[in-house]
Amino acid sequence: MEEGESRAPTEKVPLEKIDDYSWRIPMYRPGMRVPGTVFANRDLLEKMQRDRTLQQCANVAHLPGIYQHAITLPDGHEGYGFPIGGVAATDYEEGVISPGGVGYDINCGVRLVTTNLSEKDVRPKLVQLLNTIFDNVPCGLGSRRKDFKVSMHDLDRLTSEGVNWVIEKGLGWPEDAEHCEESGCMKNADPDKVSLNAKNRGLTQIGTLGSGNHFLEIQKVDKILDPKIAKTFGIDYEGQATLMIHCGSRGFGHQICSDYLRVMERAVQKYKVVLPDRELACAPGKSQEAQDYYQAMACAVNYAFVNRQTILHWVRQSFQQVFNEDPERFGLKLVYDVAHNIAKIETHDIDRNQKKVWVHRKGATRAFPPGHAEIPVAYRSAGQPVLIPGSMGTSSWLLVGTEKAMRTTFGSTAHGAGRMLSRSAAKRNFWGGDIKKALEQRGIYVRSASAVVLAEEADPAYKNVDVVVDVSDKLGIATKVARFVPVAVAKG
Hints:
Strand content: 15-25%
Mean pLDDT: 94
Structural class: alpha+beta
Number of helices: 15
Low-confidence stretches: none
Number of strands: 19
Oligomer: single chain
């Protein structure tokens, strides 16, 4: 089953209303160690009840060492093992790590880039700029850039050292690394824990957008809701041109997940872990199997950071080609790069004690509050930028992390719109040519590797991202700062 492919629920999951945006799944099954908490309004909840999202949330509550509750966020929908939009924290000493709590596209994430141009400045050369970006950034399944090659030694270096390695090669500006989660390099990455098969898949895909829901958009600031914080992040006025890059670790991360799911399935038997779903295959966090996965996963995290960094470099080059001026002339500053699929060692306040935990965020964005040491110094007084992209042709959002998120969701919030229809269902319902025509009638230019992907990514295949963001804002787990709308889209 593909991520997002819905199956009918096999059981009715009981729900207790906490408030208009919070619902509790009681410990109704033997083996549940904690309850589940679902953050959604009634409409979003109704969609979750039509597939296995709530069952999967209850399943996650069985994981050894899990603390407080299994969380499903407003964009929650059925995934592999964990629901997409799922968060769980397990004890560092006694808990487990589950690859299903990270997903196949390790460190699928988003980076936001500001310019000192307005949409009106860009519009006369918009089609030329989109075409140049599309030519410079390979898109689509199996895409590769023929003039950029890395050796196996290079691959080991970049997966160990992250964005600084590629910046030193001239593909970026020194300050770019400062504005990435983990400073663009997750520690403990060990290329020796990555299979040759995964490395071979990763060799040719650095600097490529890939397919599916990944995109590169030229956007404009549509609405500013918190001018003071927006200005801290370089968002100065409505109509300002921005860019958003959404992609991940490509086949490299996918293969690492596949490899370690097999390892974890054996580990479940070895350590006698009882689970309600084999897709939750896991291993004790201190075991060799879990440590190997964590070090390999960190390689995929760094690969994805580097992937988005090289794409940004080629976007800057595209501006230079189209406008015949140095890219620094146009700003093109990285606001932030945030991961959506990741497991991390963090310390959280649990029952008034500081606990070291494995936090799984699958289709979830870190949302740390003002003052947190892991936020870039320039943003620390405001809080961590939170980036929530929409689907093709819809809005995307910049929010900021909060103290309430730290208390209720282990410093996490939603990551996007969340699918309503599987890709196969979308293809049955929409035709790519119609989608492209409708977008261009709205002044949104589109380039894609195929018409099929336009059908798969049609707006109605997703939840309304504005509603997802509104729920996060009303809950207080992230606060709205600015809304963006696309003017041009490159799709895989």
